[in-house]
Amino acid sequence: MTAKTQITAATSIEQLPTNVSTLQQMVLTLLGRIDDLQGQLYYLKRQLFGKKSEKLDPQQRLLFESLYNEVQAKVEEQRHTQSKKATVGKNANHQGRKPLPATLRRETIEIEPPKEDLVCDHCGNDKSRIGEEVTEKLEYEPASFYVKRYVRHKYACKNCQNNVSIGQLPPMVIDKGIPAESVLAHMITCKFADHLPLNRLEGIFRRHGVDITVSNMCDWVADSADLLVPLVKRMHELIRLSPTINTDDTKIPVKNKNRKGSTYNGYLWVYIDDRKNVVFDFTPTRSREGPINFIGKTYNGYVQADAYSGYDELFRVSHATEVGCNSHARRKFEYALDSDPVRAARMMVLWGRLYEIESRAKEENYSDEQLLAARQTEALPIFDEIRAALNEYKDRVLPKSPMGKAITYAFNQWDALVRYTREPMLRIDNNISERMLRMVVIGRKNYLFAGSEAGAQRAAIIYSLVASCKVNSHDPFAYFHDVLKKISTWPANKIDELLPGNWMPPKLNHEDAPVAEGQIVKVA
Predict the structure, then answer these.
(1) Closest to 479 in 3D by CA, of 234, 243, 192, 118
(2) Exposed e or buried b for every residue in 23-34, given b needs 16+ CB within 10 A?
(3) Quick one: 126 and 150 in the same domain?
(4) Does residue 93 lie within any of the structural domains?
(5) What is the pLDDT averaged over residues 489-511?
(6) What is the C-alpha separation between 89 and 80, in angstroms, rounded?
(7) Do 402 and 259 reside in the same domain of the chain?
C-alpha cells in the first residue's frame, strides 16, 4: 500500500498496513477523532436542548471535598459579615417589597369611613382623625401620541406692505419630516434596546391611529444615526487613549445586494474602555484587520479578548499586551464534564476559587492595593495548583477530546490568563464584552438581518450609544430624546458633555410635557 492510499470504511483487510506501530497510531488517531466528534455532538445538543448555565453540580463538587469545603467556608464567612452590616431590626429572611419610585406621578384617592362609623358607640361623641393608612397600586396608561403645533406669526409694515418678519423654527433632526425627537428616540430605543423590529413597531403605531411605513422609519433611524456619528467617533478616540480595552465580536447577517434573498455574515466588534465608553465597529469579514484598524498600531495598553487568532497580529504589530479570559478557560472544562467529569470538575472548582477572590473584593470594596495583594497572595498559589493539575492530566487524555482541548487552551493562554494578577485595573475575564454583545444576539433573532452594509454600520453607531447608556445606568430613551435636540447645534469643543459617561438628564420643563387640547404655549 502506498502512503497516498486513503483508508476508508470500504478498504479491504488486505489493503490495511501490517506494521503494528502504524496500526496503533491509526487507532489513536481514530479514537481522538471520535472523541472530537463526540465533544462537538455534546456541545451542539446542549445548545439546542440543554441548560445554558455553567454552574457546577454540587454533587460533582463533593468529589473534591477539601476544595469545596474551603470555598463554602469563605462563602459562609462572607454571609456572616454581610449579616452584621445589615440594618438593626430588619428581618434578614424577608427583604420586603421595593417601594414604587418616587418619580412616578401619584393620583390620590381619599376614602372616608361610613358616616355611622364616625360617631363613638360608647359616648356618642364625634370621632377625630388620628392618622391614615396608605396603600399604593401601580397603574398603567397606554403610550400615546400627541401633536405639537408650531404656529409662527407673521408681521409686516401696514404702510408699505413690506419687510415681513416671522418667528424661526427651533433646530430639528429632520427638517421636513413629521417625527419629533421623542418619536425618533422611541424608535431607536424600541429596536436597539428592546429588540423590537420596525415592522412590529409599525403595527403598534397603527393601533394608535398613526400610519407610518417601515421604509419611513428606516430613513428616520438612518438620519438619526448620521447625526450621532461625532459622538461615537469621540468615544473611539477616548478608547484608544484608555490603558485597558475589552473586546469581542459576533456575527450579524447582512443582506447580499448581489444575490436576491441571500445574506452573508458581517461582524460587529465591541470595544470597551476604563471610562465606560462602549463602541461597536462593523466589518464585512472577521479578518485581523478589524481590531488592528480600530485599536491602532501605536496602542501600548492592555487588550483583553478571547483566544481568537485574529488578535494575534494586533499583538505582533503593536505594543498592546494580551490579557486572557479566565471565563473562556473555565468554560472549556465545563464542556468536558460529560466526557471526563472527575478531571473537569476538579478544574472548575479550582477556577471557582479564583472567582471567589474577585467576588469578595467586589463585595468588600477593596482598594487597588488590597486587590493586588489578594491576587498575589491568594490567586497565584491557586494558579500553581491549576498548572500542576494540567501537567498531571496532559499525557492521560487524547489531544482531540474535550478535556484535551481544554488543557491545550489553558497552556496556550497561560501567560495571558495569569496577567490580571499583576494589575488591579485588569479584570479576571472578558465577560463585560459578552454582556454588551448579548443585545446584538437577542436583536438579530428578531430583525434577522441588516438591510445593507450601510445599515449595519448605522446599527453599530446606535448600539454604541445604547450600550454606553446601559453601563452608565441611563435610560436610552431619555438620552436620545435630549441629545437629538442638541446635537445639530452643539459646539464641537463641548462634545464630551453629550457622551453617555458625562451626560446629565435634564429636568422636565413645559416644552417637554404633553400639551392639553386647546392649550397654548408661547415661546419668545
Answers:
(1) 192
(2) eeeeeeeeebee
(3) yes
(4) no
(5) 85
(6) 16
(7) yes
354 lies in the same domain as 405 = yes
pTM value? 0.78
Torsions phi, psi for 252 (to 5 deg): -140, 115
Task: Answer whether residue 324 is part of any domain.
Answer: yes
What pLDDT is recorded for position 88?
Answer: 46
% of the chain with per-residue pLDDT over 70: 83
- Whole-angstrom CA distances from 431 to 274, 371, 447 are 14, 19, 25
The residue-averaged pLDDT of 477-494 equals 92
Selection from 398, 409, 304 nearest residue 347 by Cα: 409
Q: Which domain holds residue 223?
A: 115-237+278-285+438-524
pLDDT tens profile 247-306: 999 999 998 887 887 889 999 999 999 999 999 999 999 999 999 999 999 999 999 998
DSSP letter at 193 equals I
Average pLDDT score, the chain:
84
β-sheet bridge partners, residue 260? none
Query: Which burial class, exposed, middle or buried, applies to 136 when counting CB atoms under 10 A from its CB (0-12, 13-18, 19+)?
Result: exposed
Handedness of CA 279, 285, 291, 295 (dihedral sign): negative
Do 130 and 193 lie in a common domain?
A: yes
Strands (DSSP E) contained in 393-454 are none
> What is the C-alpha to C-alpha distance for residues 277 and 474, in angstroms, rounded to an integer?
13
DSSP H or E run through 279: strand 278-283
The domain boundary, picked from 436, 471, 493, lies at: 436
Q: 345 and 221 in one domain?
A: no
Instruction: Give the confidence band of 1 by pLDDT, cuts at 50, 70, 90.
Output: very low
Separation CA 67–CA 61 (nearest Å)? 8
Q: 54-63, 175-184, 364-373, 398-407: which has the minimum mean pLDDT?
A: 54-63
CA separation for the pair 314, 297 (Å, rounded): 7
pLDDT tier at 218 (50, 70, 90 boundaries)? Answer: very high
pLDDT band at 451 (very low <50, low <70, confident <90, very high): confident
Would you tell me how many other CB atoms lie within 10 Å of the CB of residue 202? 17
Q: Residue 3: pLDDT above 50?
A: no
Residue 42, in any domain of the structure: no
A 10 A CB-CB count for 166 gives 10
The CA distances from residue 98 to 79, 139, 429, in Å, are 22, 16, 32
309 with 382, same domain: the answer is yes
Mean predicted confidence (pLDDT) in 115-129: 84
237 in helix, strand or coil? helix
Let me know whether 389 and 421 are in one domain: yes
**Do β-strands 278-283 and 321-323 pair in parallel, antiparallel, or remain unpaired?**
unpaired
In a domain, 232, yes or no: yes
Annotate 476-497 with b (16+ C-beta within 10 A) or e (fewer): bbbbbbbbbbebeebeeeebee
Average pLDDT over residues 118-141: 83
